[in-house]
Every structure is written in C-alpha cells, then in structure tokens.
Amino acid sequence: MNRKELNPDASPLAAYGARLRSMREARGWTQEDLAERMGYSSVHISAIETARKSPTLRFSRSADRAFGLEGGADSFDRLGRELRQGSLLEGFPEYVGYEGRAVELRLYQIGIVPGLIQTRQYAQVLAESAMHRGAISPEQAVERVDFLMERQAALERERPPMVMVVMDESCIRRRVGGDEVMEAQLDRLIEFAELPNTMLQVAPFTIGERRPFDLPVNLLTMSDRSVLYYAESQAQGFFERESTSVMPVLTAYHQLQAEALSQAETVAMISQLRKGTP
Description:
This protein is α/β, with parallel strands linked by helices. Helix content is 50%, strand content 12%. The chain has two domains: 12-70 and 78-85, lambda repressor-like DNA-binding domains (434 Repressor (Amino-terminal Domain), Orthogonal Bundle), CATH 1.10.260; 92-117 and 156-274, Endonuclease Chain A (Endonuclease, Chain A, 2-Layer Sandwich). It is built from twelve helices and six strands. Strands 3-2-1-4-5-6 form a six-stranded mixed β-sheet, sandwiched between helices. The mean pLDDT is 87.
C-alpha cells in the first residue's frame, strides 16, 4: 500500500492535512471510515490529507462534527479560517477582525456594490465570474460567498454599528447577473437605507474630479474612538492604524459625503433604476 509521507512544516495546507490524518489514525479510522462520517468520498479525504485540495468551510465543520471538536480552540474550522485568511490580501484578515467589533463603519466602493450589503445571489455571480476566469477554484468561490455572509451576520448584533456607505454611481449602473439578481440587489439597497443605523449615498458621476478616492476605502471607528483604515487594489491590501495617516483619509471621506447625493436623493435614483428609468 502506497502511503505518502506528510511534512506539516511544508505549508499551512500540509499542516491541515497532516493533522487530519493524525486524528483519523489516532481513532483507528480508515479514510473510508472518516469519509462516511463526514459525507465525503475517501478520494476527497485523501486529497485533503496530502495537500492536493484545500478544505472548504463545510469540510472543516464536518470534520469537527466527526471528531467532536465543534467550538473548540483546536477545531478544524478555526484552522481552516487561518488557512483561508493566509491567502487573502495583506492586512485584510486583521481588518476583518476589527470589523466585527467596530461601532461605526464608513465604506466607499467603485464599480460593484460593497460586500457588506450585497445579496447572496449578487455575491455568487461575482464569485462565479472569478471562477470562470480561472482566478479562483470552485471551492474558493463557495468559500468567498460564505465568508462574506459571515461578515454580514457579524454586524447583526444586539447593538449594531452605524454603517455609512458611499457608492460611486457605477455601483448601481453596472449590471451584475440578470435582471432578477440586479433588481433584488437594488431592493436590498433601499431596505438598507431604511434601517435606523445606516446611511446610504451615491457619489454621482457629475462630481468629476472632486471625487477624492480612486480606490475602495474602509474606515472603522472602534469603541475607544480610534479610527482604522483599510484600502486595497487588485493585488495589494493596506491596513493602517496610525492616526497621523488615518485622519486625512477620514477628512477626505467627509468631503466625499458632502459632494454625494443625500440619502433621499440616492433612494430616488435607485428606485428609478429599479423601475427601469435611466
């Protein structure tokens, strides 16, 4: 019987696989035994153990149920999250850790609706598009949407944060998915604007050169009133906590809000688009 030796130090993915095999063998289970308990094939278990396939969120949680590790500090769910975050842009995992605890969020987006107010269907279209381009695997496409939904859920707490969103007009003009997907997303934006802890504004094309940002911007205010800043391009992420660097960005955001449409004007524009009016 061929048995591939595992080197857990080779990569985080290899460490995950080695731990899965170690725990399986400690219980005297074959790959077939574990596969049956988890609802996967033995071929899939083998691919995870030998680092030929990345574990999905569903796989990690299934492993935790099989081994009785749910909610523990040493769970596969936690190890899988660390593994996934290692492939994210620099600074983003740290940003997400603060995002769920912030008392105020200020977001600016260009081209697509900000992730925190995307519908699942809208997010799935974007993930599937990235998959078809070969940028991510089918498993990563599922993980991307599930991770986004978890971030959204983290903001639905007993005392939710104030969430201020400014979107470039391109976010609502750009058609993503079919009519049904886009109409549901526009409905979601209107519902978001009606919440007591939100503010939604569109930065119209007419502001031209007065638009202060050329990249998406995320600003978080924490309970101690410190402000954190995260921005990213296609290939790089940047997280900043130094006030001397963050305050000019916050000032520029306030200037953007002054140039943007009011929330009432924004909702009126979205409602016109929803009805098919240019």
